[in-house]
Amino acid sequence: MSENLKERMEIKMEKINEILEASIPIVKIFDGLIVAPIIGTLDTERTQRIMENLLEKIMKEDAQVALIDITGVPTVDSRTSQHIIDTVSAVRLLGSKVIITGIKPPIAQTLVHLGIVLSDIMTARTLALGVKMALDILELKIVSTNKD
Questions:
Q1: What is the spatial distance between Cα 82 and Cα 31, in angstroms, rounded to a whole number?
Q2: What kind of fold does domain 26-135 have according to CATH?
Q3: List of E strands, 3-104
Q4: Which pairing describes strands 122-124 and 97-101: parallel, antiparallel, or unpaired?
Q5: Cβ proximity of 111 and 118 under 8 Å
Q6: Which strands make up the sheet holding 33-39, listed edge to edge?
Q7: Alpha-carbon torsion 55, 60, 65, 70, what sign?
Q8: Calpha distance 28→30 (Å, rounded)
Q9: How far is 50 from 125, CA to CA, in rounded Å?
Q10: Which is nearest to 109 in space by CA: 71, 77, 83?
Q11: Which of 14, 31, 77, 124 is the most buried (most CB within 10 A)?
């Protein structure tokens, strides 16, 4: 392989990795609270990358609560479900709490059929409800300063 071709391949791989990173945003929305809004299909590689990025962001931001919003995920299979459970376990090992939001009925049915137990995982129907749960955990309150 020529040196020029090898260099071009490395540049392309870097660009692919940049695109993948941008497709998995993990955002700090309050001190102690980060959100990972997941949109699109989850495969093993993408779910693994989400876990790695989430754990790094928890450490960087010293987040006590991480919301994983799967509203934009159309379906999950058994492998993806297990990766989500593994992510929750890894976050807990760092001493943070996880709230999974946006589980749609088809995904809930799939999880039940696969025998995935979520009873010890905090869930909320919507991202907004998840944020409220997180604020309660963090003992924070949003107060309006509007005098009207």
A1: 29
A2: Transcription Regulator spoIIAA (3.30.750)
A3: 27-30, 33-39, 65-72, 97-101
A4: parallel
A5: yes
A6: 27-30, 33-39, 65-72, 97-101, 122-124
A7: negative
A8: 6
A9: 21
A10: 77
A11: 124
The pair of three-digit structure tokens given for residue 61, joined into one six-digit string: 């931001």
Q: How far apart are CA 42 and CA 75, in angstroms?
A: 8
Q: And the tokens for 97?
A: 């709490």
Tell me the mean pLDDT per 10 residues along the chain, length 148.
76 65 79 92 82 93 95 84 86 95 88 79 94 95 82
The pLDDT, as a whole number, for residue 23 is 60
- Domain ranges within the chain, ordered by starting residue: 26-135
